[in-house]
Design brief:
This protein is 49% helix and 18% strand. The chain is of the alpha/beta class.
Length: 648
């Protein structure tokens, strides 16, 4: 067991945030820590790593125990690096202990050349131990491991002599994660590791962590990532921690069963409380029954209240419907260039974009950051101009567009004012009812759009889209800023939507549940794949394997051709073959002489190490002279052997 937490509490300004938390993390276990924003996930990680203290019970209970052999690596949401170091220096710093051992081995190797007797034996023994330690920790593959991780984390084409301070915030986070992966702590703690990662890097990280030799404790809102990497899910809910075996999909099933059981227990307790309160109210004033009423009151006071299930916390309602059925062909893009910027800053992302979306399709668009996914959505709506090609929309199309930057919202307007601006006929009461369905209630409806959270702005957008009743949804990263519960509600609404959808998202869990076709955008290339995200991955993997097999086949063919050419070049004249035969005979003679010299050197080294020899000054000098002569002779023979070998 690497980590054991028992009965810890945490208060902030008198408010209980964590309540009686207990958690264990075993060796080679991958634990996903989830919960709504502000529930205390990062606080718990800070307690584990000693960055924050915790509170104990009145009885003094509460402890955090970490195995004495465990090493902990912690990637925070804003990890720092040494700004003055280069990328390569930061990566090498992960191997500081191995580099120290390597330098010591070089030092010992130099000392062995001049040492003798007991001193030589001592140095040799120390060198042997360090060498075994270095090899066991894969020290000889340091540079290979650095290249592997840097490539995987998206730094394959980056100059490693670049100074860390010149990197962007996202690049620094990725580099900090790369360094942690190289350090290989026995417990790796990651707080939102998928931020700032593109799809290719994210998939590489998932595969890397699945084979990680230590334990993992991961906080993430990326459900697909958690589902693929984690073997246990821990959820912080109402200050308590609940543990579920299995991945995220298994957690959803177990959580539903626990919530239903908790609801039954809560409702049963509420009935019992109501029954006791009614009995007490009816009998406490009557002398004949006052004693019994007092006994019931004691029972009521001793009753530990069950936690109110979150099922009582009303989830948002998002229902996306439409009235008019559009034509079969929704939109067709033909030979249309995609470019961003103007004048000297104009940059062509795709020379000739072709895309066809039919009625009822749910299309997911994926690709690396900055590749042009959001620009495609703007292009097909006419928000970005194009100087050639055609964009043809079908009849009766009504678009509802979710812009991830929420630029269509007037941030100076109030929330209720904004929804009424988009729907002028909406009364105050109806507007508040619509906003209440997405959990924007009370005085919050009078707040300026600029001060509400990103998640609340997204909910406002969904409320406006529901009123718009569009038959074509164009969505750009709709799950950004949303909590888990709202994501699930939105996913269900999108999955049930009968109209057409064009969706850009990094949320692979959403893509898996909603998309029926995946469009992958690459530099000046767009490819279409039928099915959801898992289907896309399967096809891409199969294509990659086919390509690798074809490359291997070509490599073997090249090797065979090179071998045939080499054999042809190896043909020699009769005189050349005779000379080669003579050289081979000389080589065999040299090999015998080398073997005899090596045996002599071993014998002399053993005699020199003998205490009886060491006691005779003249004899030890004679043996050392013989040893030097034998070594010099061996060196000469080896050089002759190398020269003759190169000539054949």
């Amino acid at each position: 067991m690497l980590l054991n937490i028992e009965n810890i509490y945490k208060y902030f300004n008198g408010e209980l945030v964590l309540k009686d938390i207990s958690l264990t993390v075993e060796d080679r276990e991958a634990v996903g820590l989830i919960g709504s924003n502000g529930c205390g996930k990062t606080t718990l990680l800070n307690i584990i790593t000693g960055r924050e203290s915790f509170d104990r019970t009145a009885d003094g209970l509460g402890s955090v125990s970490i195995s004495s052999k465990a090493t902990i690596g912690y990637l925070q949401q804003n990890s720092g690096l040494s700004s003055d170091n280069t990328i390569n220096e930061e990566m090498k710093d992960a191997f500081s202990e191995l580099i120290r051992v390597k330098d010591k081995m070089k030092e010992l190797s130099a000392q062995m050349e001049s040492a003798s007797g007991d001193e030589l034996e001592r140095i040799s023994h120390e060198y042997s131990e360090l060498s075994a330690y270095f090899e066991a920790r894969d020290g000889y593959r340091m540079d290979v491991r650095i290249r592997q991780v840097l490539n995987g984390m998206g730094f394959g084409s980056t100059d490693t002599s670049q100074i860390v301070s010149t990197l962007s915030g996202g690049e620094k986070t990725r580099l900090a994660l790369a360094k942690l992966l190289l350090e290989q702590p026995s417990l790796l703690i990651l707080d939102e590791p998928t931020n700032h990662l593109d799809l290719e890097t994210l998939m590489w990280l998932e595969d890397y962590l699945k084979g990680y030799k230590g334990s993992l404790l991961i906080v993430s809102h990326d459900r697909y990532f958690i589902n693929k990497v984690c073997t246990r899910i821990c959820e912080i809910q109402q200050g308590r921690l609940y543990s579920y075996k299995g991945d995220y999909s298994a957690y959803l099933v177990q959580k539903k069963m626990r919530d239903e059981r908790q609801l039954k227990e809560y409702e049963a307790q509420q009935k019992e409380i109501a029954k006791l309160e009614d009995y007490i109210a009816r009998n406490k004033v009557r002398a004949s029954t006052a004693k019994m009423a007092k006994s019931r009151q004691h029972m009521l006071d001793r009753l530990e209240p069950a936690d109110k299930p979150l099922l009582y916390e009303k989830p948002p309602k998002i229902r996306l419907e439409y009235d008019i059925e559009p034509t079969k062909d929704i939109v067709r893009v033909v030979n249309c260039p995609l470019a961003v910027g103007e004048g000297d800053k104009r940059r062509v992302l795709i020379n000739s974009l072709n895309m066809h979306v039919r009625r009822g399709e749910h299309v997911g668009i994926i690709g690396a950051n900055g590749i042009g996914k959001s620009s495609i959505l703007k292009l097909i709506q006419g928000l970005i101009p194009h100087d050639s090609g055609n964009i043809i929309w079908g009849n009766n199309v009504r678009i509802s567009y979710f812009d991830q930057e929420h630029t269509a919202l007037d941030r100076h307007n109030t929330v209720i004012g904004e929804i009424q601006r988009k729907n002028p006929r909406l009364s105050d009461q109806d507007a508040r009812s619509v906003l209440g369905s997405v959990l924007i209630k009370g005085e919050d409806v009078f707040k300026p759009v600029s001060v509400i959270s990103g998640g609340e702005r997204a909910k406002l957008y969904f409320a406006i889209m529901a009123l718009n009743r569009g038959n074509v949804l164009i969505l750009d990263e709709p799950t950004n800023h949303l909590d888990m519960m709202t994501k699930e509600v939105l996913e269900n609404a999108l999955a049930e939507f009968q109209g057409t959808m064009i969706l850009v998202s990094h949320d692979r869990y959403l893509l898996n549940k909603v998309a029926g076709r995946i469009i992958e955008v690459k530099p000046d290339e767009v490819n279409s794949y039928e099915g959801n995200f898992d289907d896309y991955c399967r096809v891409v993997t199969e294509k990659k394997q086919e390509l690798e097999a074809l490359q291997e086949q070509r490599r073997r063919a090249q090797q065979e051709e090179q071998y045939a050419q080499t054999k042809q070049r190896q043909y020699r004249s009769k005189q050349q073959r005779a000379q080669d035969a003579k050289r081979r005979e000389q080589i065999r003679t040299l090999e015998n002489e080398i073997e005899q010299l090596e045996q002599l050197i071993s014998k002399l080294e053993a005699e020199i190490a003998d205490p009886e020899t060491a006691a005779d000054y003249n004899l030890i000098n004679e043996k050392c002279s013989q040893l030097d002569e034998a070594r010099n002779s061996l060196e000469d023979k080896m050089e002759q052997w190398a020269e003759l070998s190169d000539m054949i």
